[in-house]
Amino acid sequence: xxxxxxxxxxxxTIFLILMVGTGLTVLAAFRDFPGPLNAVVALTIAVVKATFxxxxxxxVRYSSRLVWLVIAAALFWLAIMFALTIxxxxxxxxxxxM
Amino acid sequence: MPxxxxxxxEAGAHRALQHHFENxxxxxxxxxxxxxxxxxxxxxxxxxxxxAYTLYRYKYPEAFAAASNHLDIRLGAIxxxxxxxxxxxxxxxxYFTQVGKRRASIIGLLLTIVLGVAFLGxxxxxxxxxxxxxxxxxxxxxxxxxxxxVHELKxxxxxxxxxxxxxYWIYFAMTGMHxxxxxxxxxxxxxxxxxxxxxRFSPEYHAxxxxxxxxxxFVDIVWIFLFPLLYLLGRHMEHG
Lengths: 98, 240
Hints:
The complex is a heterodimer. By secondary structure, chain A is mostly helical. Chain A has helices at residues 8-29, 37-57, 65-89. Chain B is mainly alpha-helical. Chain B has one domain (24-237): Four Helix Bundle (Hemerythrin (Met), subunit A) (Up-down Bundle). The mean pLDDT of chain B is 92. At the A-B interface, helix 1, helix 2 and helix 3 of A face helix 1, helix 3, helix 7 and helix 8 of B.
């Protein structure tokens, strides 16, 4: 697989998408969404922005399968760390502890 | 030739090709993969900080909202724009190196350095404001312990100031580690600029630029998450 050169036009597009995302996240922060939706909206925008950076600025879209596997493994372990720790802290009050 | 013996590359091989790689392509792929493995350790490292943030935010929602509202949203947003712009100039520096435009790539690298330093400068202004408001947690600064103006924080009654202090521990740990990564990044970019100046890169060999780019974009991603989580989390309650 030879090196893929990303055209500057794509970089400019991604840059503009990231700028729009930043504007949106600031605007959304001042609106009062019901329940925990403010955090959900903010994190969704952040994840979308990060995905664009990873795929295009970091060339992962054009990288080998091995790079994809390494990133997937990282996200998987990150999910384990969050899931196990939060399941502990969020359930501590369920049982009376002597 | 029997297997396992060291081989010498044929005469036409690029001089940057190390002896344990077959060709430049394999060397480049190995470098990229190695950098990603390093970035995985960085993801886990920052992941732990984000996890600490999540747990304490869940535990102290009112204090976190009040403390977050005290951060300067304007400076935070400007820094987000500065950092994303620096990621763009970094990507362009990589592109110009790939196509062999040395002057343009040096300009890209220098712009990235300038934007990185601007980010750190704005961060320093924010830190100084926190210092003046006695918001540096614990007794990190001799003679200026954590002692905020409770009235100004608009803390709901019954919420301990210690919970606000927890927010600031996490704020300084996360933005501080992020700023340290930025400082290291600016250092790496300076080395790259000197290397580019000395004509060390070519369309065939530019792995250091590519790999430092990966690092710089990673640091940008960390900030993409830090900005909403630290600066924006309580704004909607302020105006509700």
